[in-house]
């Protein structure tokens, strides 16, 4: 144990520290003082985020099992920011339930797993991180234990994630047979394109596609999102998905870089199907959580267009897009959570006339929906622009044609919600929805971010200076 | 003593993998589905051990990977069983088709 170990693992240490303190608190049965505890956790997460902005040297630990670069630190920081914002928006939900400590233990364990997964330099660490990040989420999805929907959603998540892990592992075992080592650098050097490695790649792609809910493997998404508590839905759609996107991208570029011509077409076709099917299913949704579930599938389709670009620009555009996606989705789910806590209604009709009763929430929600749709001048426009430009760099014209058609359809999907809020008359008067201080902070941070991020070129330039292609 | 060729072991593990996959999609009892997932994971273990033994006998990477798989699978099953028990209290059944309330 020396100073280098301490500094390279600093995100992990903070998270482990919080989890440890919470476990001890649980043992000491200190449930009574909830509000100071929630505030303390939020402050520590904020400190962790600010700590991540300090530049740090690259390095690897434990015989290259754990590595850290500036890009990895940036990715962890995005996830950290997302968890902080979600924790702020969940403040009210957590004040009303009993087991807040377990909520944070599970959520932070999952975050720790994602950090391990992102920094992994060996497939074993990747697998352990992936499992550590998915298993606690299944328990979290089942958090409203008295509700049927919640149990069903938890079951669907644990089964589909266990199945997808099995498929992924089968691919990894074939990769081991073909290469003889599971170290990332060794695999990247020794990988040859033959039947066995192609088979291995197909299985590994299937496993990752399950986790990212790319279309032929998306069937669990909507049900799980609908049944979970709102803050967990936003955790699933933002943090889980974002981390798997990061890992998938680095696996494609650094592990399977030699096989680009083999995976380019697969990823392009998956992108087309994902965008189209996601959009078409969004058209008929009446539940706002399901609507956002299918919209998140569509967004993954756009991300795949960017990934198929296979250049340094593709890498930076995907990370930039995930940052914006975090902000827009957390804002949307924050508003939905506030309304669902008030009247327990999550159907679209509950949003009729929201602008008249709660203009502030309606404006935030419409801003985030505009950003998801990619309307300028919100940041979502710039995110989509860079994604499609990087797809253009690889001359994927058919994919881009589909992407542009889908942009129009998705605009209709999001504007449908905006129209409901601004133009329809309310059937049942909603009344004033109370927003507390933490929720307000989270919403204002997200809204400010969505408006100004596109106009600060320094952010994109910074990401771009760290990125790598094949 | 004559060794079993690698190909035979791989055929065995692939068969088990697809049996597990079939069970996962065709079974209606949740515990049977869980067993099918275990079959899939065990076929992966056989694969790792076989590759390690036949192709790379001088190292232990595959062996340790399979040990980790067994451990993590135990944790996964614990969470899955807990969720199934909770679900049984809500629905009074472990049949996957009777617990499907959310659709499309």
Can you put this structure into words, describing what you see?
The complex is a heterodimer of chains A (470) and B (104). With 470 residues, chain A is mainly α. Chain A has one domain. Chain A is 77% helix and 1% strand. Chain A is built from 21 helices and 2 strands. Chain A has helices spanning 3-8, 10-27, 34-53, 70-89, 91-96, 100-119, 123-141, 148-179, 184-190, 195-212, 219-227, 230-255, 260-282, 288-307, 312-343, 354-357, 359-373, 379-393, 397-422, 437-452, 457-466, and strands spanning 59-61, 66-68. In chain A, strands 1-2 form a two-stranded antiparallel ribbon. In chain A, a hairpin with a 4-residue loop joins strand 1 (59-61) and strand 2. Chain B is built from 3 helices and no strands. Chain B has one domain: Helix Hairpins (Orthogonal Bundle), CATH 1.10.287.
Task: Compile the SSE list and pairings.
The complex is a heterodimer of chains A (470) and B (104).
Chain A lengths: L2 H6 L1 H18 L6 H20 L5 E3 L4 E3 L1 H20 L1 H6 L3 H20 L3 H19 L6 H32 L4 H7 L4 H18 L6 H9 L2 H26 L4 H23 L5 H20 L4 H32 L10 H4 L1 H15 L5 H15 L3 H26 L14 H16 L4 H10 L4
Antiparallel strand pairs in A: 1-2
Helix pairs in contact in A: 2-3, 2-6, 3-4, 4-6, 4-12, 4-15, 4-20, 6-7, 6-12, 7-8, 7-12, 8-10, 8-11, 10-12, 11-12, 11-14, 12-14, 12-15, 13-14, 13-19, 14-15, 14-18, 14-19, 15-17, 15-18, 15-20, 15-21, 17-19, 17-20
Chain B lengths: L5 H21 L3 H25 L6 H31 L13
Helix pairs in contact in B: 1-2, 2-3
Query: What order do the SSEs of chain A take from the amino end to the carboxyl end, as H and E?
Result: HHHEEHHHHHHHHHHHHHHHHHH
For the largest beta sheet of chain A, what order do the strands appear in spatially? 1-2
* SS field, number of helical segments of chain B: 3
CATH topology tier name of chain B: Helix Hairpins
Classify the secondary structure makeup of chain A into a structural class.
mainly alpha
Question: What is the β-strand count of chain B?
Answer: 0
Global geometry of chain A:
globular
Strand content of chain A: under 5%
């Amino acid at each position: 144990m020396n100073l280098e170990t301490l500094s390279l693992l600093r995100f992990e240490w903070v998270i482990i520290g919080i989890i440890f303190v919470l476990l001890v608190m649980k043992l000491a049965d200190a449930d009574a003082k909830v509000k100071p505890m929630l505030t303390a956790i939020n402050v520590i997460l904020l400190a962790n985020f600010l700590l991540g902005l300090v530049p740090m040297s690259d390095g690897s630990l434990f015989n290259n099992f754990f590595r850290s670069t500036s890009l990895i630190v940036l990715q962890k920081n995005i996830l950290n920011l997302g968890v902080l914002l979600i924790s702020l928006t969940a403040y009210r939900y957590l004040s009303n339930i009993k087991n807040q400590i377990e909520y944070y233990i599970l959520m932070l364990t999952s975050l720790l797993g994602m950090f391990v997964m992102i920094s992994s330099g060996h497939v074993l660490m990747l697998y352990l991180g992936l499992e550590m990040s998915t298993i606690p989420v299944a328990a979290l999805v089942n958090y409203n234990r008295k509700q049927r929907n919640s149990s069903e959603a938890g079951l669907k998540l644990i089964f589909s994630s266990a199945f997808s892990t099995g498929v992924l592992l089968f691919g990894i075992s074939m990769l081991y047979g073909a290469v003889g080592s599971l170290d990332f650098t060794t695999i990247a050097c020794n990988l040859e394109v033959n039947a066995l490695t192609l088979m291995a790649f197909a299985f590994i792609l299937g496993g990752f596609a399950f986790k990212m809910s790319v279309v032929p493997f998306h069937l669990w998404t909507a049900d799980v999102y609908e049944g979970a508590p709102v803050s967990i839905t936003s955790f699933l759609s933002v943090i889980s998905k974002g981390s798997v996107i990061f890992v998938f991208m680095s696996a494609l570029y650094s592990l399977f870089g030699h096989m680009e011509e083999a995976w380019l077409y697969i990823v392009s076709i998956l992108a087309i199907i994902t965008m189209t099917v996601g959009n078409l299913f969004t058209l008929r949704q009446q539940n706002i959580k399901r609507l956002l579930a299918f919209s998140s599938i569509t967004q993954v389709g756009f991300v795949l267009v960017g990934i198929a670009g296979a250049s340094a620009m593709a890498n930076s555009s995907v990370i930039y897009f995930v940052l914006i996606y975090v902000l827009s989705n957390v804002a949307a789910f924050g508003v939905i959570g506030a309304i669902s806590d008030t009247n327990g209604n999550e159907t679209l009709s509950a949003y009729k006339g929201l602008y008249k009763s709660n203009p502030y929430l309606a404006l935030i929600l419409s801003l985030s929906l505009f950003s998801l749709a990619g309307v300028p001048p919100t940041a979502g426009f710039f995110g989509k622009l860079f994604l499609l430009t990087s797809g253009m760099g690889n001359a994927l014209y058919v994919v881009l044609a589909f992407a542009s058609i889908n942009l129009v359809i998705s605009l209709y999907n999001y504007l449908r919600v905006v129209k409901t809020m601004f133009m329809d008359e309310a059937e049942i008067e909603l009344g004033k929805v109370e927003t507390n201080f933490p929720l307000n902070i989270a919403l204002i941070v997200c809204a400010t971010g969505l408006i100004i991020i596109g106009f600060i070129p320094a952010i994109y330039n910074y990401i771009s200076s760290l990125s790598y292609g094949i | 003593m004559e060794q079993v060729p690698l190909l035979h072991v791989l055929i065995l593990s692939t068969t088990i993998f697809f049996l597990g996959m079939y069970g996962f999609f065709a079974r209606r009892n949740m515990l049977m589905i869980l067993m099918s997932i275990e079959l899939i994971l065990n076929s992966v273990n056989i694969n790792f051990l076989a590759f390690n033994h036949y192709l790379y006998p001088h190292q232990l990477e595959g062996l340790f990977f399979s040990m980790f798989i067994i451990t993590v699978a135990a944790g996964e099953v614990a969470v899955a069983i807990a969720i199934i028990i909770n679900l049984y209290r809500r629905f009074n059944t472990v049949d996957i088709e009777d617990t499907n309330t959310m659709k499309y």
